[in-house]
Amino acid sequence: MSSTGSSKFYGYKGKILRLDLTNKKAVKMEPSPELVRNFISARGFGAKILWDEMKPGTDPLSPESKVVISWSPLTGTTAQSFHRVFVVFKSPLTGGYFRSVGGGFFAAEMKFAGYDGIIIEGRAEKPTYVWIHDDEVEFRDATHVWGMTIDGTTEFLRDETDKEARLLGIGPAGERLVRFACLVTDDYRTPGRGGGGAVWGAKNLKAIIVKASSREVELFNPDAFDKLVEEQTNVYMKSPLFESFNKFGTGGVTYNFYTLGHNPTYNFKQIELENIEVFKTEVQEKYIVKHTGCYGCKISCGKKWKLTKGPYAGYVWDFPEYETQWSFGSTCGVTNLEAILVANNICDRYGVDTISAGAAIAFAMELYEKGIITEKETDGLKLRWGDGDVVIELVRKIALREGIGNILAEGTKRAAEIIGRGAEKYAMHAKALELPAYDPRAAKAHGLSYATSNIGGSHMIGWNHYEILGVPKKVDPFTTEGKGELAKRVQDFIAGYESAGFCAFGGLVTVGYYNDEDKMFELISGLLYAATGIEEFKNPKYLWLVGERIYNLERAFNAREGFTRKDDWVPERIQKVPVPRPPAKGQIFELDKLLDDYYKARGWDIKTGIPTRRKLEEIGLKQVADELEKLGKLPS
Amino acid sequence: MKIYIEFLSWASLKTGRSWMWLEVPGGIKVRDLLLKELPNALGQDVAKVIIDSILNGTLVVLVNGYAIPSLDYDLNDGDKIYLQPLAAGG
Asked: What are phi and psi of A185, to 5 degrees?
């Protein structure tokens, strides 16, 4: 299967834009029928193209590395929540496959401009931005905006192109190759994790800015499509999860999840957090002054907060999501919501992943507490738990790679190696990606996804709605029984709907209504078929197959890079130290037992954790098996 | 004995109050408190909205800050019940 060739399908624009930064060359290619049929779009396109085009062993920060950005045949249509931008690359943080997703309006504008995706390659000689206006693609000098935050960059580049253009770019952190620098849209939506911003920075690519002159997507069966969109809208309005998302955004769960044993405190020490009640929605709602949303999404989970008191009075900014309330809050012992908002503001503008940044700060705070680092190494800062001002200062230092920030900008795994003296014990990561706001000990299948995820410690690659929400049915989060199968099921489910470019929050709202994953896939399949006319997409089971195919291909990418079972790991604290607070009190994470169960459920080799030929062929990936065999990576 | 009940987020809009103390018989279970005592305190119609929401999973019951395994949970004097809307997030 190749990635390009001749095709013409409804819903798609039939063009992938290849940007060669070294030669300032833009080439428009047709996605091949095989790519479309076998991988659908979005995460599927990214995984397949990266597999085809990235040689194993490529340095993610070299000109040879590539970035694939894509969206869905449903992007730009009236369907809800299919307008996400999927960014796939080899991560400078993990050294493996990465997929990062963001919202906003960029993907829809790119679709309207006539594209299904972008492949970025090479390295520009000097700072560059790319201006796309329908068919016209220009490589322009970005020297004057290099060093600017996202807000400044957006303002300047819109002045030079179109006032209503949409932008995806990097801030000063990406320019400085902070290993968890992110990409940011003009409206501060972020494909946030894994260091995509550093990959762009290494390529001297400051931004892509786009304006389309039309607003059309040609559909196969517009009448059937409209009916399904009406059904989808109904589902949203009636879902028990809609109101909370709509009213409070993800901040609606911060207190709730603490009570379930998540929102882990003090770098996963998990002792009680005094003053946790400030995270209740009753407190948060006093800050909300505006609801915002992405293109074509009624959930509108974005919120603007206004600060009117304290040292940060006057700030009006995107609210900290649940993960950020945790990363700059609970895991650092901070319960000052105003300070958390300001730290979030710096990350949005400078282009830093809030999860990794906060986790790195919590790591540094614990090292300071233990006396492993002192004020001599912290530029005189007292890294005391709970000090929001210190968090803000450290975020700034990380973004600009100043002093201790220069070490933390490497990510906790590398920072621990640099610091030494036993610091590794306190680096809370999986495959070098900092663990987010759920405790694997308090939800074993969810934790299994942290350990086995192809992108490292991510909560979004296998967000376990069974264990955390009890949807579609309640599962005891603490037991290990059946968790391999459950982790696999949810990972494939998410990869399935992400192949259609659907939003995870839209997914939760929808599955929360149907209480049935297959019914949700029925709706998505219906939309895909009505939009594209592709027969395979008609069958909801096909989404499960594509999900599993993508997940295995991503695994194969990592196997080709040398990842094995030894990399499916969580830190010692998670494996050996029992949680001290209820309701997960006494729980540890039984890694080896859970891994065996998971590999069996996946049909992978238990010794190496690599997909077998049988599994790969069963899901249409024979050529992948052949290549792994050629490289000596296929289990015998 | 007395039990404290807090209605969070939209639950407080439905009941018209954020919290209340309820005088209940000793040794009562959460299920009986909801089905037998709450209607007396809130009125049948309002209590029905709350109880239906709990039974269909839209409202989550926490006791003293922690999710309870089932509605057959035994309550003690001074326990605090939080009724939280089901919410999810990344």
From this structure: -90, 170
Low-confidence residues of chain B: pLDDT under 50? none
Place of tokens 């969109």: A229
pLDDT at residue B90, as a whole number: 67
Q: How far apart are CA A76 and CA A67, in angstroms?
A: 22
- Residues in chain B whose beta carbon is closer than 8 A to a beta carbon of chain A? 8-10, 12, 18, 56-58, 60, 62, 65-67, 82, 84-90
Kindly determine whether residue B89 and residue A251, on different chains, have CB atoms separated by under 8 Å: yes
- Is the domain of A586 the same as that of A445? yes
Q: Would you say the ipTM is above 0.85?
A: no
pLDDT of res. A6 = 43
| Host domain of residue B46 | 2-85
Condensed to tens digits (0 to 9), the pLDDT of residues B56-66 reads 878 889 888 67
CATH number at residue B12: 3.10.20.30
> A218-253 in b/e burial notation, b at 16+ Cβ within 10 A?
ebbeeeebeebbeebeebbeebbbbbbbbbbbbbbb
Domain C-terminal end among A157, A179, A211:
A211
Cβ pair A517, A472 in contact under 8 A: yes
As a whole number of angstroms, the distance between CA A199 and CA A182 comes to 9
The answer to whether residues A414 and A461 belong to one domain is no
At residue A7, the pLDDT reads 52
Same domain assignment for residues A271 and A297? yes
Distance CA A84, CA A71 (A): 6
The answer to whether residue A385 is domain-embedded is yes
Q: How far apart are CA A139 and CA A25, in angstroms?
A: 8
Q: Report mean pLDDT in 10-residue bins for chain A, 636 residues.
A: 57 98 98 97 98 98 98 98 98 98 98 98 98 98 98 98 98 98 98 98 99 97 98 95 91 90 97 94 93 97 96 98 98 98 98 98 98 97 98 98 98 98 98 98 98 98 93 91 98 98 97 95 98 97 98 98 98 98 94 98 98 98 98 96
- Which residue type sits at A146? W
CA-based nearest distance B50→chain A, Å: 13
pLDDT of residue B11: 87
Q: What is the number of other CB atoms lying within 10 angstroms of the CB of residue A357? A: 32
Q: Do B88 and A465 touch (CB under 8 A)?
A: yes
Cα-based distances in Å from A322 to A153, A173, A286, A354, B90: 27, 23, 16, 11, 7
Q: Which residue in B67, B82, B87 is closest to A244 by CB distance?
A: B87
Inter-chain touch A282–B9, beta carbons under 8 Å: yes
**Structural domain total, chain A:** 3
In chain A, which residues touch B (CB < 8 A)?
240-241, 243-245, 247-253, 255-260, 280-282, 321-323, 459-460, 463, 465, 468-471, 504-505, 508, 512, 582-583
Please judge whether B88 and A253 are an interchain contact, meaning their C-beta atoms are less than 8 angstroms apart.
yes
Question: Nearest by CB to A259, which of B58, B67, B89?
Answer: B67
Give the model's pLDDT for residue A361. Answer: 98
Cβ <8 Å between B85 and A244: yes
List of chain B residues whose C-beta atoms are within 8 Å of the C-beta of residue A471: 57
**What number of C-beta contacts closer than 8 Å exist between A and B?**
78
Which residues in B lie closer than 8 A to residue A245 (C-beta atoms)? 87-89
